[in-house]
Write a structure and sequence with these properties.
By secondary structure, this protein is mainly alpha-helical. Helices cover 76% and strands 0% of the residues.
Length: 278
Amino acid sequence: MNGLQPSIYILLAIFLWSSLGIIVRLSGVAVHVLIFYSVIVSLIFQAAILSNKKYRKDIPSIKKIKYPLLIGFVSLLNTFSYFYAFKHTTIANAVLTHYTAPIIVAFLAHFFLKERLTIKIFIAIVTASIGLLTMFKGLSFEGNHATGIIAGTFSGFAYAVIVILLRIHSREFNPLVLNFLSNSVIAIMLAPFIREFPVNALWSFIFMGIVHSTIAPVLYFKGLKIVTANRTAILGYLEPVSAILLSIVFFNELPGKGSIIGGLLIIFSGYLTLREGK
């Protein structure tokens, strides 16, 4: 498998995840309720697939199961804070603060994964960072936006930890099995806080459970087995661009000039990464 194809898997996952803010807003339910029921749908869908005999050999031993459990815990922190940001600030603010993660990953990968920085990847990191900083100039800290921005930044840190953990352990697990186990942890941790079943939001649970919690993670894990953490981080910068475009279409949340310029720099950095993948 060449370097470009795994990058495409990651790009597809990123595009699917970029629609999260739209679904969170339109669902109209509390964050923990949305996460819980979408994960339940995902687990049902995944369990049906994993019931096939060919997946039995991929079930990890008790000794190895601690890694999916840890990833599940950090994933809950990441998802909850990210969804909270969508509820309390603009989608642009949420995704831009969340994507402090790629910068964090670029540095963590050097210390924990011993990944060297090629000149092209270094240029891509610098370009994407300049793009992100340009976008930050348009962030609003007035009113209730502050809590959303803080939550988005925290989700960025949690996301960076997930990328590093996956890069270390993803080769040891089947992507679907890993996702199933981490989702199980999320469901178990949230179950004590669920008191309702909002039927009007059933469509959002089904959509997120299948698309965001099953298809996208499997594509992402599949790509991460080959793509380095640094390159994954740069490709991740494309999510804010896609999410902002969707927010314009659905909610007429027009970004400022800084967001447009920064977005173009981010797209260019993603192009450099794909060229390196070749």
